[in-house]
Amino acid sequence: MPVAEHGLIGDLRSAALVGTDGTIDWYCCGRFDAPSVFASILDADRGGCFELAADVPTRTKQFYFPDTNVLITRFFADDGVGEIQDFMPIVDDSREADRHRLIRRVVCVRGSLPFRARVAPRFDYGTQPHTVSTQQGQAVFTSASLTLALSASVPMEHDGRDAWSLFKLREGESAVFALDRVGGEVVPRSCALTEAEQLFDATVRYWRRWLSASRYRGRWREMVHRSALTLKLLTYAPTGAIVAAPTTSLPEQIGGERNWDYRYVWIRDAAFCVYALLRLGFTDEAKAFMHFLSERVGLGDEPSGPLQIMYGIDGRSELPEQLLHDLEGYLGSAPVRVGNAAVGQLQLDIYGALIDSLYLYDKWGEPISSDHWDTVCALIDWVCENWDQPDEGIWETRGGRKKFTYSRLMCWVAIERGMRMAAHRGLPADTARWARERDTIYRRIMDRGWSPERRAFVQHEEGDVLDASLLMMPLTKFVSPTDPKWLSTLDALGEELVSDSLVYRYDPQASPDGLRGEEGTFSICSFWYVEALARAGRRDDARLAFEKMLTYANHLGLYAEEIGHTGEQHGNFPQAFTHLALISAAFNLDRTLG
Description:
The chain is 34% helix and 21% strand. The mean pLDDT is 95. By secondary structure, the protein is an alpha+beta fold.
């Protein structure tokens, strides 16, 4: 199915994609980066899936139960209307949390309907064989590394590999399927109809209680809150980590090689998430992420800096990239990757993103601790020594290091925000040195990051390529949003990189990034463009660009990383980067419009 034809459910530990046809075609049990159990989105034959649908021709519609992450898929047929309620209960009890229960509740709401279910797991990305046995009325799928138990309120059959059921429901009747991870202290346990109903109610209460903390009361409340709920689904509760996306290898170009594993913690992406959630009034996620950094991530002395650009959700630093040749890839877009080779890249901008979020947490959350301040000082001192290095930049290019303007911009942000914290809290710091380096970076960008020929700030020194990351210049308060140099840059970006409000990162032909193929417009850049327009006083242009971007969301308000030439969603899905930028753009556009 098209990437956009999916919704997401999860339990703050892992997540599953549910298609509008009722099929779960992506699910990694237990944790975001676990080997897949269902991955038919990457290989229809070998990936595995959990099909559940009406067994007659139907029209389908999908929506979220209001203000929750409980997903409803409705089936409209000649003889009746039915729906599937998909959710994963959020539980505090650690033993029950280890069950990672996934519930699929089927209800016939009008008339009568026949249904069919087929559960066909393929363990470890389709490489591990398994068996199926019946134990206490449940189908138990056993592989070398994982055992799943499926309980159902309707009769099931199996052939030693897959399990299935054909059943009919009349108006008011329901059926329940519950898929559990079992083993150790977690024993197989059925899920009665009444228990499923109670868990449904409890899950709805959890999500509504969480969302009630939002302070956003602006014009785009539904889209902003859907983005917030999506970001919350991408948090890993045991450690406070925030993943960039819950999927791997959904391609940026159909048939291309730009396929990456995003089930890890990018310092930049997570820091931006913290910023977006703090904006809305959610401080617990920021606190949990700060705990993740302090408890799970130690400062190193590698050539790539004291911090890596990404970590595992448990804080591990090794994320070796391997190719899964057994899976053909989404619509044949190979390779399928697990792990990420960009982990060792030098990307100087991460320090600005992180320290900016720490600054905002200190401002809107709780005062920074002495230990955290020592870490901030160590990071800023390192930035002062190393900001002038060439690096791979925010876009993780594999075409060689350059002196990217955006990297210098965010080094300036790191030092400037550190100075603000020191002044605000009266904290000890070598502010004289920090100020000298901050001012040197500023002058360097104004001198070498500016192209008199293009009359615009450019991607890197000694070049003339435009780059949408520079839309962050006024957003970070580096330059006034009405500065003539900036307004000239904004016009140049609008002419060269913007198409119907959609923004390309850069022109790969003008700035080769070491990869074959083209890509779509980058949705985070499109929302940055909205903010830049709003701050420049172009309110009508900003509002129109924002409203246009909202039309590119899927039926649930979800976005992937990119948008293709004909409006389709490309890349891993849903993407934290896009949703956090939507929140920020809506917040600032609301403020501009008054």
